[in-house]
Structure formats: structure tokens, C-alpha cells
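HOLO CASE FILE
Compound: beta-D-galactopyranose
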Amino acid sequence: MTVTEQPTKDSPPPRLGMHTLTAGRGLLFGGDYNPEQWPEHVWVEDVELMQAAGVNLVTVGVFSWARIEPEPGARDFGWLDRVLDLLGSAGIAVDLATPTASPPPWLGHRWPQTLPVDESGHRLWYGSRNQFCPSSPVYRERALALVTDLADRYAGHPALALWHVGNEYGQVCHCDDSAAAFRTWLRERYGDLGTLNDAWGTTFWSQRYSDWDEIVTPRRAPYIVNPTQRLDFSRFSSDALLAHYRAERDVLRARTPDTPITTNFMGLFKPVDYWSWAPEEDIVSNDWYPDPADPLSPARTALTHDLIRSLGGGRPWLLMEQSPSAVNWRPHNLPKPAGQLRLESLQAVAHGADGLCYFQWRASTFGSERFHAAMVPHAGPDTRIHAEVRAHGAELRRLDPVVGTPVPAKVAMVHDWPSWWALEERGRPSDRLTLPDQLLAYYRPLWERGVTVDLVPPSADLTAYELVVVPNLYLISDRDAAALTRYVHGGGVLVVGPFSGVVDPHSHVRTGRFPAPLREVLGASGEEWMPAPEDRPVRCRWADGTGFTARIWTELLDAEGAEPVAVFTEGDLAGRPAVLRHRAGAGTAWYVATLPEPDALGELTARALVDAGVTGALPELPPGVEAVRRGPVLFLLNHGAGTVHVPVPHPAEDLLTGSATGDRVTLAPRAVVALRPLG
Ligand code: GAL
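Model generated. C-alpha cells follow.
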């Protein structure tokens, strides 16, 4: 699958998707259910509590390999039969997992070659989870045998609604099986060793390969490892995991062609290129755990949700895991204050989710996650968390009008995994310039203005968008650079952040003044990247004389037709452009050569939005209030600490309460309204 085969907004809706699940059920609500941790009498109480809480979907069996196959080749499905029968008879649909994320100890004990090896050559042992090598033939064979029996057993079971393949794929391995698979992958990519040597630049530091068998994964070495070797290994590792996912998926699809298939993503997760994965699933699902201690979490979460929706071509998605309150895997785990569970769930709905699930249903008493919050806490159902869960489950029934509806966006933000991998290699001008920070920096001012954003890969068709933002595209192909140029000439507005267009797909620096492939469209070019002292702000000035500060990064640039809308004011760069705007063809291109403070990036974003003729969901939004349109409904969510009044254009009904609004809406902290215009 290549990125050109991405689903787009115009692709016909696929046969299977969230609609397969929501038909007759409405919004999905539930969580991970691990009944194998409990005696059977608790299952009965669980199902009663689930029904009372409005739960209609649970994920079962994620970590049950050892329970189903207690010794090699054995099968114990009896307990799982009873779980599925119980849930099915209660009308609760099952998202049944292939339990292959955590093989039993017997697999690693008898076949240590199935265990992953880190870059230092250390084997990672059983006793936790994820201890598998995606390229191990033994792991593959054992996993597929189990998945085959699982699918044969539950095909046609009335409770089976969705397949959940593995869990949070991301394991990278450096073992000898992986090295062999890496060589096969490289042979397909390069054909012959000479081409590989050229692509990897092995003339440098005497790294030339004379035989394929000399090539290994980028294992720990005395000093900085070849960046192209590492980039290719990242590409390979994502593909190797995908190959395993596809093998399991194909077994399931052959036996249950009418049951949709997903695997749970992790947002902006670096090791896996989700643009290549998403088209291989029927439903895109995500696990997302906002940090209650992170003041930027509402914007970070919105960005993540927009990415997940975009991965599925704009179609509804499933929030597979979130926490009802504190997690247990950060060093210090804040609980969610009252109302936060609801606010965060509804934020996902606003951004296109048609299902909201939690990790997990009942809190574990043993194991590594016994201090992770759950929908039923250790203290039982008579608790504030469970009360919030119940209230939330009940109110979701009121949101049926949004189910299946789209979240339209006129702004696209470009995100590319290989460029991310290449950017963050060692040995660059500054490791303070990171991709997630850049994405959030450019996303935030759009989010604050109620502007919805789609994420797109660099190869996407951009014609549907009025504004395209490229926070960073360090690695860019000639073809993608030409497409961005055409987009601007055709009337589009483009904003490009610093250190973009630097290397080609082999991660070789492009020669000539930078950014070489975007120089013409940006109407500017540079000769030196100049990271700034970390303890001193970079001072800049807009053309109207007002000042702002930036940080970390500057570039020595000349305008070549672009108008410098802001300049640096100090040091060697005094008077040189910091931000440029270029009329090119029928469109406009902006280039930003530093990391402006948030207010300045807000100012720049506001101007680019004017160029693009794009306005937010509402003309006026108090700080902390998020506004998102989904289908006929305008969601307003107050992430701020104070009560606010938001003017709204039309009388509307708040779907969540059934009450009518006037010309303004009052929102207490953590309040949400879902406004459907009246009349
Ligand atoms: C997810 C994982 C779950 C559980 C959860 C805890 O990453 O899929 O199994 O570990 O985190 O937050």
C-alpha cells in the first residue's frame, strides 16, 4: 500500500466501518474488559453494572493468550464462550481481541528467538508484555494458529461486533531474524548493493558494504550511526509490524468478512507510520490519555483527534482507550477533576468519534496496572468516578443526531512520519527543534480560533483546502515539493515552518540555497541555520514596528520576491527576514524562519487565515473555549478555569440538555454544549 492509496474525503464509503457498529446502537460506550482477572460471579455483577451504565461495547481478550493456550497447542475457550454468551445475552457487543500482544512465557522459554532484542543486543524477556519480534517466523506461526482457531470459534457469534488485532503495535527488534528481514526489505527497495551504498552514503566513515550479509539493523555502535540506515530501519520496522498485522487481519477477514477490523493506534506515535496502516483497517481507533497536569492538553488532544479522523479519510472513528481518571504510568498521576471525564469524551465526539471506550472496566487488584483508574474503581460502583461514568453513558443517547456526521475542515496540516524520523536524528544543528512541538505550535492558534484542521500526508490532494500549514517538512521529495508549489500557484495559501525542504528521501542534504525545492514558491532562500542561545530570546519586529520574541532557531535568509513581514532586530541577523510572505501565482506562501512565541504565531496565523478567507466556527471565542462544528451541531467546550459567556449566532437547542439557547451561552468550567440550530 502506498500513500497514494490513502482514503480521501471523496472516496466512496467502505462497506464496513463505524456505521456497521453504530447501526441500531447509536454512539458506542464501554471499555476494556478483562474478566479473566475475576471469578465468574463477578462477571454477572459486571454485566448488570454495564447495562445500568449504558455500556454497549466492550473489548475482551487483549491479554488472554496464556489463558486460551496454557501450553503449546492446547486450547481453552470454555471461559471465553461463557463471557461472550453472557455479554451477548445482555445486548453488549464485543470487540474481540487477538491476544497476540503478550505471548505466554512458554513461547519465549522454548523459542527465545521470538523475544525482541534491543539495539544493544539485549533480549527483552517475558514477565511484562509486548515481548515479541514482529519478524520471527515462530511467533508468526504460533500467533496465526491461535488467531485462526479464535476466528473459527467465534465467527457468527451474535456478540462479536469488531476485531481488535493485537494491541498498540510498536515493538522494534534488532535480532538476527529482524536483520535478515531488514536485508530482504532493502533488496526490494534498492535492488543492488551499489544503489544501497549510494543511498546510505557509505563512503562516509568507511561504511561501504561488500556483501548483503554484512548489513544489520542499526545496532548500538561507538558513535553516531548512519542516518539513512536508521531512517530505512524506521521504515522497515513500521512495515514489519504492518506485515504481521496484515497476516492476522487476513485470517480474520477470510473467516468473518462482515465483521470490521481495527487495531488501536496511539496518536502521534513515532515508531509507526499510520498513513500506511490506516487504509488496512475497517475502522481507525485510538488510545489517548491526556495528562491532567499538562496545560496544553486540550489543544494536544484536539490535534490528536484530528489526526485520527484524518487517518480514516474523515470518517467516524473509535476512541478505544482513555482513562476515567488517573493513569498509573506517569511518575506522578493526577486524577481527573469532576466533569473532566465527560469534557474529554465529548471533545472526541466533537472531533468525529462515534465511540468512546475506556481502559478499563473494573480496576485490577494485581499486576502492573492495579493503580490505574477504572470505570468500576476498587471502592466499587458507589463512587464519584462510577457515578460520572453512568451519567455520561446515559447522556450519550441524546447525541444520536451527530452519529455518522462529518467534521468539515478547510485547513490542512501536513504530517509525515519519515520526515519526523529523519528530522530527529542525531547530529543536526539543534535537537531542540522537534516535530511534535512544531505541530502543536502551529495547530494551537488555529484551534484557539475555532478553525478545524485535517492532517494530511505530503502526497495528499490539497485542492479541497484553503490553507495548508507545514510546521516542518525537513525531508521532502521533489514531487511533493512540486505539489505544494502548484497548490500555491493555483490560489492556495501555504505556511511553512523552519528547517523544511532540507533533505531528500535518502536524507541527503539538498545543495544550493535552502529550502531548495521550495525556494521559488517561498520567494526567499537561505544559506545558514543558526540556532540561538537558549538563555536569550530572539528579538523580532513586525513591519508595523511592534516587537515579538522567538526562541531557539534562526536562519540567515534573503528575500527573493517575498515581502519580509517581520525581521530579526539584533546581532548578525539584524534587519534580516524572520517571517516572509510571497504572492506566487494566484496564491500566497509564508515562510517562518524561527520559533515565534505563541502570541506572535497567533498573529501570523490570523493573517494567513485572512489571506485564505477562512474564519473560525464563531467570530468571538473566550480563551479556553473550543468550538468545533460536526454535522449540524456546534460543540462548545470550556477547558478554562472560569465561567464564560459565548455569543452564538442562532437560537439553538442544546442536545445534551434539551434546553433552548438565546443569543449567548454560559459555560461553567468543564461545561459542554452541543448546539443544533432551531428552525
Ligand atoms: C494502553 C494499553 C492498555 C493499558 C493502558 C493503560 O497503552 O493498550 O492495555 O495498558 O494503556 O493506560
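CASE NOTES: The CA atoms of residues 442 and 471 lie 6 Å apart. The pocket of beta-D-galactopyranose is lined by residues 167-168, 287, 289, 321, 323, 327, 359, 369, 372 (CB under 6 Å).
CLOSED: yes
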